[in-house]
Amino acid sequence: MPEITEKELPPNQKALWLKAISAIQTSNVPYSINLIQSVLKDSPGFLEGRKVLRKCELQVAGGAKKKGLFGMSSSSSKFHSQAKKDPTGALPLIEKELETDPANPGLNDALFEAAVNLQLLDTAAFALETVRKNSPENVKLLHKLAEFYITRDKPMEASEVYTDILKQNPADGIAVKGAKDCSARASMQKAKWDENADMRSLMKNAAEFEELEKASRTGLTRDQLEERRDGIIARYNADPNHLGTVKDLAAIYEQLEDWVNAETFYSWAFSLSNGDVALSNKALAMKDKALEGNMRNLEAALAADPENEELKAQFAVYKADRLAEQITEAQKKVDQNPTDPAVRYELGNALYNAGDYTAAIPHLQQATRNPHIRTKVLLLLGRTFKAKNMFDIAIKQLSDALADLVAMDGMKKEVLYEKGLIHDQLGDKAAAIDCFKQIYEVDYGYRDVAHRVESSYV
Predict the structure, then answer these.
(1) DSSP per residue over 236-253, as a string?
(2) Where in the sequence of the chain do the CATH 1.25.40.10 domains occur?
(3) How far apart are CA 107 and CA 65, in angstroms?
């Protein structure tokens, strides 16, 4: 049974799929779940649909349910048996159970078994990736996922899973060896080098390599950066656990704007460093850059073809996924350091962007304790209360921000403009024009203030 893409869906199934995407965009998530389950029943190889279904189910369920034990329940054991005997028939039954407990490890393991038996290998990986994301403490299934990636000759993916296992149990010997071996194999695979090659032959001579080591990391051409990368990879393959080499490799990938590899090696460096938070933050920053690049590519494609319904659907799903991931990452930072106003602001900003204004407010209020970011926090608080139609409180936040600002810089202009818009929306034209005039007096070309001020004299 092959896995298929949206383009390969039969016309009737594609119509249901697009209808489901529209339902998601209008926040009718339960209806979209029913539609996607119908699509998957007839097209079980439609992996994109299964991924979107799981996100919708997790949203409705309020996230993963906490489990007291990691063993299989009697119901999931039953599905394991069905997955072996009749995998085609078992898939829709397992999906129906997952609707109310989408991150259930036992049910996702049963889905894995059914998908493997049907040769839906990417679907199988997705099932265990769901466990990895929502129940990372279930190292038994994470080991199963890593071994599955190894059998499919995907060493980088296996290495990342082993790294997650080590976060749960740093003393796991199998994971330690697996992470090291798979990371080394992935590097050689990417560079298309045979693992038995003499790595020393990759350097033209010792003098050239020494010169390369001493070269500045700035001001190099791309060819020079790539040459430097190749030299570092040679050292890395000789010793994948040398922290300095791993950090150098991560940095060179960052300079090359290869965000995916930069994230991989910063993550590996973090694992080797005994918890260097700076390296963890670097890995997250690289991940953000990779996702932002994907978002820009989708936006550009949609701008070039604005009537493309498939692109619209892909963009909507990707954007929602991106916002959800930003919230998850910010929440992790808050959990690790709940007294840090900067991470509170990051979480509040992510919640604001996702439209969850009520949840954003308490985090932003705590973030005002940091004097270095207080003004921009108050600006966002003003916008948050404005989004909730609490205009008087919004104006109070913006007034507090203005009290901290002296020079008419970009921030003060932005706060004044936002405050003017709220006064205008409330029908208080005099207060609105007063805000716009303050900007007009120093910056005629700022947004549309010239038109707003001059038209008030007509």
Answers:
(1) HHH-TT-HHHHHHHHHHH
(2) 316-455
(3) 13
Question: Whose structure tokens read 């208080």?
Answer: 428
Q: Model confidence over 314-330: pLDDT tens digits?
A: 778 877 877 888 898 88
| Residue ranges in the chain whose pLDDT is less than 50 | 68-74, 192-218
Which residues, listed in sequence order, are joined to residue 4 by a DSSP beta bridge? 46
| Rounded (5°) CA angle 325-355-59 | 55
Query: Nearest to residue 380, comparing CAs of 341, 409, 407?
Result: 341
Residue 135 in contact with residue 67, Cβ under 8 Å?
Answer: yes
Report the C-alpha gap between 363 and 177 in whole angstroms.
Answer: 41
- Identify the CA nearest to 366 among candidates 349, 384, 341: 341
Q: The CATH number of 316-455 is which of 1.25.40.10, 3.30.420.150, 3.40.50.10490, 1.10.540.10?
A: 1.25.40.10
d(CA 53, CA 40): 9
Orientation angle between helical segments 47-61 and 87-98, nearest 10 degrees: 30
Our CA angle for 120, 123, 129, nearest 5°, is 145
Q: How far is CA 336 from the centre of its chain?
A: 18
Of 88, 126, 128, residue with least CA distance to 105: 128
Note the pLDDT of residue 121. Answer: 92
- And the tokens for 257? 């704007």
Is residue 344 within 8 A of residue 366, CB to CB? The reply is yes
